[in-house]
Amino acid sequence: MDQRGGSSFSETDVVANYRYRPPYPDAVFRKLLAIAPRSEHLLDIGCGPGKISRPLAGAFTSVTAVDPSEHMVALGRSLPGGNAGNIRWIESFAEDFPTNGGPFDLTVAAASIHWMDHSRLFPHLLANAAPGHVMAVISGDEPFEPPWQSDWHSFLGKWVPEVTGQPFDHHKKSEGTRSYQSHLNLHGSEHFVSERPFEQSVADFISCQHSRDTFAPSKLGDRIASFDAELSELLRSYSDDDQLSFIVGTRIVWGEIKPIGQETLLGLGAIPVAGHGRDSRPDAHRRAYRAA
Questions:
Q1: What whole-number distance in Å separates Cα of residue 94 and Cα of residue 116?
Q2: Cα–Cα dist 181/290, whole Å
Q3: What is the pLDDT of residues 153-175, one digit of tens each?
Q4: Predicted local distance difference test score (pLDDT) of residue 285
Q5: Looking at the DSSP assignment, which residues form a beta bridge with residue 143?
Q6: What are the Cα distances from residue 20, in Å, to 17, 128, 142, 192, 262?
Q7: Parallel/antiparallel/unpaired status of strands 87-91 and 62-67
């Protein structure tokens, strides 16, 4: 994996901590199946360990799972469902993966679109899209409005500048992760929450943070012990016998890829989608910072 943004996901300790990320709500998978024009070929770009590919393999004829990290691909193969015969794991960047396996009916980018070069990505996807192709972008696998959210934002306000040298600005972060929307004719945006609370120990929650690029162990360096101790102290007051319980929030934005050139016509940014889905409030006002 090269040294562009997100290169920490090639590091073995970041990959090892991925198992502590919460699962997506079940409704996310139902929605993906509902918006897919057909159930022939699924493309999962920036697939990580296959949080989308593995659960949906049984619903599609073939699944192509693409990630530039060999360790992520290896983890995905090893997890339940990762050895399904119809999943083709490919170690590659999404912008230039080999295209046999399509044309694709549904392309999913889950917690990954912000790492990609959109000027190269979308022409590549469009060239391998089946008629009626739908692009779905998934964001969020964090606690949704947990009791500790205010304290969490204060914690990020200290640690994000400490690690990145940049101020923590949740609104700016959310705007940046939506820049891909200028390449889509948007069909909808919907926010989902888990049907049951997710239970996780304080220690595992902290390990989950080290699966995210901002707080990768290599970036924290010798500050990791202080980071862990401070976050542990923050969370324990919200835990029951060191166990946290929270709802997971996830958003799907979907649409069709614009013909080449159209994205520059309307073009100075995302086109808002009014009134689609359960909640049309901007993500910037709904969820904690994604240090991913």
A1: 7
A2: 18
A3: 999 999 999 999 999 886 655 55
A4: 29
A5: 248
A6: 6, 34, 11, 20, 40
A7: parallel
